[in-house]
Amino acid sequence: MKPLLFFAALTLLYLGYCWCYPYTACGNCDGGKHLTSDGKFWRKCGRCKGSGTKVRLGRKLLGGTRDL
After folding, report:
1. How many CB atoms sit inside 10 A of residue 49's CB?
2. Cα-flanking dihedrals φ and ψ of residue 33, to 5°?
3. C-alpha span between 30 and 34 (Å, rounded)
4. Cα three-residue angle 22-63-54, rounded to 5 degrees
5. N or C: which end of the chain has fewer CB within 10 A?
6. Cα four-point dihedral sign 17, 15, 11, 47
């Protein structure tokens, strides 16, 4: 019973974290950090559309991501 309560508490903490901080760095472009050959950064990415961020899975589960 105690492991179940532990995992339930962890899940609630994670969902609370996702509510406060809904975005994470894009895994495809490492948060918009692409290094070009001349040493400059560019942020062109098909997954995040150049923003460098994506919505966390927990925030998607909470719903209401249309306005994010």
Report:
1. 12
2. -105, 85
3. 7
4. 35
5. N
6. negative
Residues 6+ apart with CB under 8 A from 8: none
Which pTM was predicted? 0.68
Tell me the C-alpha distance between 39 and 25, whole Å. Answer: 21
First CA to last CA across the chain, in angstroms?
A: 37
For the stretch 8-58, pLDDT in tens is 999 999 999 999 999 888 888 777 776 666 766 665 788 887 788 888 988
- Neighbour tally for 55: CB within 10 Å: 14
Token pair listed for 34: 């692409």
